[in-house]
Every structure is written in C-alpha cells, then in structure tokens.
C-alpha cells in the first residue's frame, strides 16, 4: 500500500512562502495571542542585535499541547471534535471567537526570521505547568530532499526562565542533529555549516532579557503565556518599518497593524486584547512606539467629521440607517440592493459605521487645526476596515487595496462618485455566527473570493455609489436630499473665501504693524531718535539765525513768530512720524501686544523727555533772540497764531477723515445697490427659465403627466432663487445694522469696531491662556503620577548603594565601581532633592528660613554646573544674616528657577572676564544679581508672563509660576535696577515692607 510522504520543504511552503509578508505574519501571531486569551501581546525589536521578542500573557501551552497541537500541521487545535479536547479557557474570561482556522498560522513566524526560540508556560486550573522551551531553525525546512520526520526540534522543560547555558545545550542538540544529517549524506556539509553558523550566532538569555524588557510579562509563579525570540530577523522588516525615505505615507507595518482591534468608532466594544510594537534602533534604550494609538483614528474623530453614516445591512443586503450631513442634519435612509433578487445573501447581515471628511477645508465645517490633524490621519490610515468579532481582517483598511472600487470610480469622475479612501474612515462589523461564509485565505490576503465575498463587495459598491447620488452630487442625477449638502457646501465656500480675504488683509496689516514696531525698537537701540531730534534742533537753530539779519524790529518779531510755528511743526511732524497707531481690523499675538505696550512706554519717555526738551528749547531760542535784537513780541499775537496753527491742523485732519468716511458711504451704497440689482436679475432669469419650460411640457397624455410633481419641481427652482436673494440681502442688512457708536461717561465715542477689536484680543488671550493652562495641568498630572515612583525608586537605590558599599569594603575590584556609581547618583540625587520641599506641602508649616540655608541648597544643586561654567557664586554679609518667613516649598523653587536662568544666560555671555551671581539683602528684601546679558526694557514686565521666553525652546513658565506662588504668600518678585557689578537684578520683597 502506497502512502504520502511529507518533505520538510512543505513546512516552508505552508509558512514563509504562504504569508504575504512580515506585517501579515505579525498580525497572524497577534491573532494567535487573542485565541490564547491573552490580554496583552507586545513586540520588542532590537535592530542592532537583529532580535525580535514577541510576548503574550495568554493561557500558554503544556508540553503535550506544544507537541500534539503546535508542532502538528493542520490541527483542529482551536476546534472541538470527538478526538480532540476543547481548548482551555480561563474561568474568569468570557468565550472568544477563534480567529485561526487552518492550523498553519503559527508557521507565519518563519517569515520574520530564520530561527526562533519558543518559551511557553501553561496554567490549568490551580496547577502550574513547567516552562516548555523549543528551538527551531526554519532554514532546515528549506533544504531539498529532507523528510519532515528527519528534522530535530530540541524541546526542554524548566522551572524558571532558562539562562544562556540552557540555551547553549539546546543549540548543541540542534547542531549535532545537523552534523548527523551531513554524515548520513541527507544534506551536504556546506548546507549544514551554513545553518550551524546561524545557530551559533544566536545569543539569547531569556532570564536576563526579561528583566530588561518593558511590560508586565512573566512566566513565574501563577503566570502563564508564550514568548518568541526570533533571531536573526529578516532585514526586510527594517524596510517595512521605515518605509520610503521622506514619504508621508504610512509604512507597511503601520498600514497592516494599526487598528488591530476596533477602537475608532463611538461606543466600540471593549478590546479583548491590546498590542504594542517597540522599535529599539540603537543601544541607548530609546524606542519608537510603532503602534501609538494616538496616531490612529479615535471616537473623537467621528464626532468632528463632516459626515457620518451608520446602519445595518440585513440578510437581503438592504441598508437601513442614518446619514448625518455636515454634523447638522440627520436623515433616516435606506439603500436597496437587488443583486440577489431579494433572496437571503450568502454573506449574511453586517453593520457599517463610517465617517467622512470633505476633501477641501473650505468645504468643511471642521476647524483648521483639527482638519489638519484628521486629514493627516486620513492620508496615512484612511480606508474602510473590516472587523470580525472586533479583530481586524487584513488587508481591508489599507487604502492601496481598493476592494470596492472607490478609487477606481473616483478616477472616472470625482464629482459623480464623490468618495475617496483617504477622506474616509470607518468599519464593517461582521462575526463568525452570522458571516461564517466569509472565510480568509490561507495567506491572510483577504477573503476567499467565493459567492459570499462577491456579494459583500457588490452590496458595498452599490451602497457608496447610491449614497453619493442621494446626498453628495449636484445636477439632474442627484437626489432631493442632496440639496442640503449643496447649499451647506456653498455656504462654507463663501464663508471661507470671505475669511481668507479678511485674513489676507489682516496679514498684510499685521506684517506692516510688526515691521514698524521692529523699526522703532531698532532705532531706539541705535539711538537714532536722539540723533534725529538733535538734528531737528540744529535745523531749528539754523532757521532762527536768519532773524539776526532783519533790521526792522516789527518784521524781525513777525519772523520769530513764524519760525516758532514752523519749528513746532517740525517737532510735531517728527512726533507723528514715530507714532504707531493701535491695531485696527486685525488681532495681534500676545508677544506683539507686549511689544506695543513697551513701545507706548518708550514713546511716552520720548514725549516727556527729548521731544519736550526740544519744544522747551524753542521758547528759550525765542527769548534769546528777543534779548539779542532788543525787540518786543505781542504775547497775545504769539498765542493766537499758535492756536490758529493747531486749529488749522486739527481741521485739516478731521476734514480728511470726513471725506474718507463720505467716500466709504458712497462706495458701500453703490455696492449694495449693485448687489440687490444683480440678485433681482438672477431671480428674474430663474423665473423666465421655469416659465420657458412650459413649452416643452407634454400634457396631452394625462396618464404620463404628473401635475403635482412638475409643480413641486418648478416651485423648488423659483424658491431656490428667492432664498438666495433674500438670504444674501438679509446678511448685508445685518452688517449695515451692526454699525454702532455711542458716547461713554467721558464723552468719548465708542464704536462697534472697538468692541470687536477688544473681543478679538480677549479671545486671543483666552486661547493662549487655555493652551498654557493645559500644559501646566499636564505637567502637574505628570509630577503627580511619578511622585510616588520617584520616592520609592530613590529609596531603593540608596539602599542598594549601602549594600554595594559592604561588598566594596571586602573586594578592592568593586571599590572603583562603587565610587563611580555613588558620585553620579549623589549628583542626580541633588536634583531629586528638589522635590523634597515640594512633597512636604501636605503637612507643611511656615517658618523663618535662614538665607544661607537657601544658598547651601542652591550650591548642592548647581555645584557641578557652576564649576563647569566657571561662575562665582557670592553673597554679602547682609544676605548671610537675613531670614525669610514662609514655606520652604514656596521659596526654594523660586530661587532654583532664577539661579538656573542666571547660569544659562551667563553661559551665553563669553565676553565677561568673571561670571558672577551675587546674593544681597536689606530691610526691604533680597536681591539676586548676575552680570550676564541685560534684559531689554521692553521685556521687563513680559518675562513674568506665561509663555514668554527668550531661551531657545523655552516654555516661559518658570518666572510666571514664581510670581504666582510668591503672590499667594504675600510676596512679590520684579526686575529691579541693576546693582553695582551686575547687569540683571531680581528683587523679592514682602508686600508688607
């Protein structure tokens, strides 16, 4: 009797050659972990060592399970029959739908690398089985002429994770088996040596590695699970992770592994398993989280998307659900399908939940920030995902796999077919019970193309084509429900264009405003204003000197008055030249607002200083020439001419603005008339077109002519024209009615322009404040989370150092190691001690704090940096005898922040011979000075504002928080006049001093 024999190569064909690629193989292993009732399955990939570790905390396998199920091809290991007991299920977990079917999915691991070490431990009931270890080299299964039963697979059992020595013994058994095959001429010596080289290079110690790896995975005590150590990893994995250089598209790993469970739809089922993939690219213990869920779609994205479709396809393929357009109007909708002549389908009923984003932002109701985020996700991960029992089926969701012709149709006509994968994200929900005929291919490249799958395809193709016609199409081929989308899209485009035009105008004004401000500060820094005013005075003196040559006293007196008026005009012209009007019609950032406030202060200084001096100088010159020429000038006449000049200038300016206002009124009136006329012409044309259709109507055959329907169509056409005209004019009327002004209590006019500007500025400030508060909250939460871990970890390290000290005392070789660790930890500990005063806040008390204790704390903390940058840290006798009253937790961080800033800026000031930080005190408070770069006048107040910083990548929080916490204790901090020997001085004083 003849029998089939199985070659070893059959395993390679069913495994590595069957699977589409490494991402698909990893997906298959994730599914196996799900079937094993794991809560977590995680991958750690070490590029330098070409090692991939996959661990799950599932039920694991006994030795019998491993040999009779895992090492047996095509087993019923996940199904029950009369010969095979059912798979084990933990008592505390609900039954899961099994993803694997064919008994060959485990072979997918051969695609990842040429060799795998498997560790698995089972817990059945209250009994803990031993750890089962197996070493498999997949290269052996590629050898021709070798039967499957000739391949040796070393299997061992251990009470705990094996060490390097245990693995070496397993490697030796595998190498010996290859040498025996070579001796028996089953394989060549070269083939054996090639594989032995790979086995020899395997360097894994599971017991050491597990302490190093991230995640709570263990095979000790009552824990169970399965660990795979793949090495060497196929180098194509790097390409699958990295993708094309400089490409913004999702990589193969991202496309195939993102969204392993459905976490994107609102009210999605709780995932039964979570996955992770950490990519360690160097030896620095830093990794990239390749499956960061923050990068993928979330329920919040469904909430903000433009459109949302949700419903059920019944057993006949008919859709019934809701279509929400522009987050505003929801339609109950049905989409029929007659592809199966209204018989029950083979594919079965299924659910759909899809969100869609308009392709252009000007047509979207999503704000610009979220639109950018959500379309970036769409570009990478957009598509229609299929989930069976909440586990993703590959390759659906990959936009490159156009299984329902979405992109194919779009290339024919984007307007007609509307949809695109890159703007779509959503799920098709199926399950084993109702959709059993949808079966995956062995290679996990989608469903087998049987009748059930073809029906599923046809139903979905029909649905999206019909949905586009019903809701998202213009013209005669669109449905009545599409009107809302057409109208809303037009509104969005009109609004966007108006906003874009306004923003463009505002941008030009902003840039001009900022340029003018910058020029003022540059001129101020270069003392140009002083030079300009000095030149003005010289010009004025030169002009007055011409009076000395006039002999007629009366003529000379008149000339003096004329020169006085002309001179004051020169000064006034210069004042207007450097004057910058407040921003109108646009909002400015907080930084620019601070600059403008600083400008106003500087301008006031010029007004009351140099410009006033120049004006006073004119009076002096006039008096000097009166004395020199011995002439009298009528004071009344002099005053009268000055008032006449000022009055003429005032009238001139007001008249110019009046003319401008009148021209604006004429222009607006003309535009409103023109708009109203155009709208009436359009409406009239619309009515004429409708009436013109009468001649084409065939009313002779009453059976074919539907009067009611035809009347509705004509009424709708005319109503659209009427609505367009009336709504447009209503918006214009509201704008005109919005023009407002009134007098305040000071008899000053307030306009709606001022109110709008004030509201815009307040909105901008609130936005910045909210963002800053969020960052502060995140910092606070982070500190709260790590606080306990910090304390316990530091205590543990301190205890371990004491233990190491004892060993170092009896072992000279450890002395150097101990000292090095101790010195470095003490340096780190000084920074950690910064948290100590903060941690006492729950049971703290106010006390008198000697200033020298604060300095000692600062020296301990910053000693290394101060010495490294060669900075002198000094204090005066007065500081040494001074005390502060309050909480240490309040004052310590304030001093830390100021000294940290001082060190930073001193280090930027290489031109200083001796870098100095000096502490001083007197009866009014404490002074902290340094001789680093001086702080510009315009920044004197700004440095205490949240978010302001001149540091590269500075967050601008330190001084703001310092000011806030001091204020809570009735203290204040401000920038004082620099003390002797310093360029910057901060002062801390009590509000009671």
Task: Tell me what you see in this structure.
The relative contact order is 0.05. α15 (528-545) packs antiparallel against α16 and α23 packs parallel to α25. The termini are far apart. With 993 residues, the protein is of the alpha+beta class. Strands 5-4-3-6-2-1-7-8 form an 8-stranded mixed beta sheet, with helices on both faces. A hairpin with a 2-residue loop joins β13 (383-388) and β14. This is ATP-binding protein. Residues 785-992 form the Histidine kinase domain. InterPro entries: DHp (IPR043836), HATPase_C_sf (IPR036890), HATPase_dom (IPR003594), His_kinase_dom (IPR005467). GO terms for molecular function: ATP binding.
Protein topology:
Elements: H1 9-14, H2 22-35, E1 40-46, E2 51-56, H3 63-70, E3 115-124, E4 127-137, E5 155-158, H4 164-183, H5 189-201, H6 206-212, E6 225-230, H7 236-242, H8 252-257, E7 274-280, E8 287-289, H9 299-304, E9 307-313, E10 319-325, E11 329-335, E12 350-356, H10 368-381, E13 383-388, E14 391-392, H11 406-412, H12 414-417, E15 424-430, H13 451-471, H14 482-525, H15 528-545, H16 553-578, H17 590-629, H18 635-692, H19 707-737, E16 741-743, E17 749-751, H20 752-810, H21 812-832, H22 835-839, E18 847-850, H23 851-868, E19 871-875, H24 877-880, E20 883-886, H25 888-907, E21 915-922, E22 925-930, H26 958-968, E23 971-976, E24 984-990
Parallel strand pairs: 1-7, 13-15, 19-21
Antiparallel strand pairs: 1-2, 2-6, 3-4, 3-6, 4-5, 7-8, 9-10, 9-12, 10-11, 12-15, 13-14, 16-17, 18-20, 21-22, 22-24, 23-24
Helix pairs in contact: 4-5, 14-17, 15-16, 15-17, 16-17, 18-19, 20-21, 23-25, 25-26
